[in-house]
């Protein structure tokens, strides 16, 4: 069997938002029984069928790079992470729906990854006002995933989801909200599964195909 082509997708977000549990669920369709803190970066692989069910269907490896979630401002911390940002093809931004700060910090994470050669200029959040222009010209596909949906009371869910809905709009990305301890949120045919597949297709297209549909030659 010929080696499969692959793409690199970063999984970014604060410590404790559930990135490792999410990656395990995406790659193995199983709940991670005993999650631990990620030191540095952990890489897992998901097999994805690009344009499944069409004549263009092709199987790819999706490398999911789970980057440790310290948001320390020290230059040494950022420079250490910078090595993981090389040659990225897509980014999954993960936040905890029960933690408003983790949602706000997604702007810092995306800026750090997309402008890895430029040190972020201070805090991006001031009284809830974001400098959205910093992301306007981004060409890297993004997906926003909110975790711990199960920990929000039913009576509060509309309020919380309304508050976080602006994230997808700001990043020009689709949004998925789920509970990483319940695989049904990514069940085949569900709206979340469709969004996820669409995101991976977009990542592959950006990496391997030109806009006119011709395949990019890789040497």
Automatic annotation (TrEMBL):
For this protein, the record's SMART domains field holds: RAB (SM00175)
Transmembrane intervals: none
Q: Which SUPFAM superfamilies match?
A: P-loop containing nucleoside triphosphate hydrolases
Going by the UniProt record, its keywords in alphabetical order are: GTP-binding, Nucleotide-binding
Hydrolase found in the keyword field: no
**Signal peptide residues on this chain, from the entry's feature table:** none
Alphabetized GO MF terms: GTP binding
- In which domain of life is the source organism classified? Eukaryota
Assigned protein family? Belongs to the small GTPase superfamily. Rab family.
Question: What is the annotated role of this protein in its UniProt record?
Answer: Required for KRAS signaling regulation and modulation of cell proliferation. Regulator of KRAS prenylation, and probably prenylation of other small GTPases. Required for lymphocyte development and function. Not required for myeloid cell development.
Q: What is this protein called?
A: Rab-like protein 3
Organism per entry = Asarcornis scutulata
